[in-house]
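Reopening this one. Same input as before:
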Amino acid sequence: MSYDSQGVRRAAMQVAQLYANGKTPDPEVEMVVRQKLATARIEKCVRETLAISPTLHPAQVEYLAGLLDTPGGLV
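Same output, byte for byte:
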């Protein structure tokens, strides 16, 4: 996957399109589109934060990766 600077906007528009004109989206389609939006938001936040932050310690990287690898996130 490559970075898409318009990813959040594009994904949010896809969510909105699911409900256009009073439509009720298919739950599986909605889940996939909302996952794309969540991914785009997380990617944007991570990229913006890393651009202005000092390099993270490997233990910090491992901790953050663990958050993404844990169902439901924080425990």
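So the earlier flakiness isn't reproducible anymore. For the record, Helices lie at 7-18, 27-52, 58-69.
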